Amino acid sequence: MSFLTLKNITKSFGPNTVVRDFDLNVASGEFVSFLGPSGCGKTTVLRMIAGFETPSSGSIHVGGMDVTALPASRRKIGMVFQAYALFPNMSVRDNVAFGLKIAGMPRAEIDTRVAEMLDLISLGSLADRYPYQMSGGQQQRVALARALAPRPNLLLLDEPLSALDAQIRTSLRDDIRRIQQELGITTVFVTHDQEEALSISDRVVVMHKGRADQIGTPAQIYNRPTTRFVADFVGKLNTFEARVESPQSIFFAGQNIHDPRHTDLTPGAPITVALRPEALSLRPRPGDDLSLPGRVLHSTFLGSVIRAQIDVAGQQVSVDMFNRADATLPVAGDMAEVWFTRGDVLVLPSVM
Amino acid sequence: MSRRFPLLSTLIALAGAAFFIVPLIATFNFSLRMKRGELSFEAYRSVFDSDVFLGVLGFSATASLMAILMGVLIVVPTAYWVRLRVPRARPVIEFLSLMPLIIPPVVLVFGYVRLYGSSSILPLTMTEAGTNVLLVIGYVVLSVPYMYRAVDNGMAAIDIATLTEAAESLGASRLRTIVFVIFPNIRSAIVSGAFLTFSISLGEFVITSLLNRPAFGPYLVQMGQDFAYQPAALAIMAFAFTWICMVLMEAFATRKPGQRLLQWRAPRSVTKAKS
Ligand SMILES: Nc1ncnc2c1ncn2[C@@H]1O[C@H](COP(=O)(O)OP(=O)(O)O)[C@@H](O)[C@H]1O
Ligand SMILES: [Mg+2]
Description:
The complex is a heterodimer.
Chain A: E1 2-13, E2 16-27, E3 31-35, H1 42-50, E4 57-62, E5 65-66, E6 77-80, H2 92-102, H3 107-120, H4 136-148, E7 154-158, H5 166-183, E8 186-191, H6 194-200, E9 203-208, E10 211-216, H7 218-223, H8 228-233, E11 238-246, E12 249-252, E13 255-258, E14 270-275, E15 290-301, E16 305-312, E17 315-322, E18 335-340, E19 346-348
Parallel strand pairs in A: 3-8, 3-9, 6-7, 7-8
Antiparallel strand pairs in A: 1-2, 1-4, 4-5, 9-10, 11-12, 11-14, 12-13, 14-19, 15-16, 15-18, 16-17
Helix pairs in contact in A: 2-3, 2-4, 3-4
Chain B: H1 7-31, H2 42-49, H3 51-85, H4 90-102, H5 105-115, H6 128-156, H7 160-169, H8 174-185, H9 187-202, H10 206-210, H11 216-226, H12 229-254
Helix pairs in contact in B: 1-12, 2-12, 3-6, 3-9, 4-6, 6-9, 7-8, 9-12, 11-12
The structure holds adenosine-5'-diphosphate and magnesium ion.
Adenosine-5'-diphosphate binds near residues 13, 16, 18, 36 and 43 of chain A.
Family (chain B): Belongs to the binding-protein-dependent transport system permease family.
Main location (chain B): membrane
Pfam families (chain B): BPD_transp_1
């Protein structure tokens, strides 16, 4: 059952088409993220859901009702902006109460609801502060409470964490997810940060040039990218030119690899395969059944991770290994074996 | 090692200040000498005793307040709409708002008299009320450069577009957004514009006298021709009034939400806590 449905949305500004053929179904209570590089149209789609932009074609349904032509003020949608956008002339309490006053809620009920919302974001003690008296993280919490207070049908967040520093970003990210699950509110979250999208969402929509390239769970997006763009954009990849030997095997980096998962490939066709840095190791781990010979170019100690660059058949390959007390840093110039399992080999789609 | 006292710059500054202050002191001193042989506020008393003075002051103040009201009602929605919908047209609107500074008031008022004269389809100058309306419109035009600039700067200080969207997503109509969100946040800018409008309109002479209105500006000029001490007293009062306007503007402009206009108690110290 889809609660929010975008059907075949296209949006043009003059001659520029910035969103095309966009389809999406979001279930009630689901948390969906739009992930993509800056300028790919994430904000534009979100603004069409909110009612600040009208699609050039296509339709938007919320809870079974067509809202495509409904003005933003009547959509019952909560919105959180990157720049907080709290009303500077109002205290925290009045900011949170704004939507309730507009809706004509009785005074006593407003007070209860505001107290409840401030509790939810643990800022009850700052109810009488003004926005200019608060840190960015606190302001964004208030903005979240303000958006949620009128019990909207949908919560939309446009890069709400981008203006905050790293530590507050993670803690507020976790708070947003916790509150979303507590209230069970259907949520669309826009970000250009893959870690943010993967960690917080039920499903991720990876956007590229105005299209939804891939829609899937964070694990699907990361482990099984269906387009070249998704593979490149989400996570880091080592790619290899390869050739299909037989329906059962592919040939790359001087080896034939038997891979029964890709039986539909035509023999002789050139393809690209990829390996994530964290799927590789310089020491065989249990289950590692394949290896490529190479030479260490250099290595970096990153605390929890040791990152090595290996030259494999003239190509630079990144290897990420967990740091352990007994681990030693690979020495530049040494010979090395790069180990992995056949299940980690990604055959990249030819689709860009 | 203390720096050398900047003698030359101090002297230049003092000379500059004297250029403004000496005539003011001289005028003030002169205004106190109406009674021969002693200093007194006799000239001020005689000004306030005059019914004509109170009459023209009342008239001018009313006209100025009307001009402020009309100016705010025209300028605020215009500046808001331009910033929200046609931000690219802002330089054009800004240039248009400066036109009253380029076109002399004499030209403006002659234009009015011709346009709205006895042979016009809208003969405003034929009635007392119509002429008053024309006068207020003239004041509005004269003050638009200041009012528009003040309001537009006020809007630049807050993110009008995002605040509007935030209010709309919370269910507010456009009108409620303007009244509850936009207006309170540019109130200090509007007040600045209002004080400027008031001080321009109150002593305005050209338009007022050509429309033959019983207002403060023409009265001031008339007094200057007929009397000696009273005009000096009036000039000093006009200065004082302007200064009070400036101080009030400053007080409004620097006020933060949630503070009183004038803080009698020490400001509540507020620390920015980390969240
Ligand atoms: N109001 C507008 N008028 C013209 N072009 C716009 C407008 N809003 C967005 N765009 C263009 O649409 C594209 C997508 O923008 P946006 O949705 O903001 O991207 P994102 O949020 O993914 O960074 C950009 O190229 C941007 O320049
Ligand atoms: Mg954006």
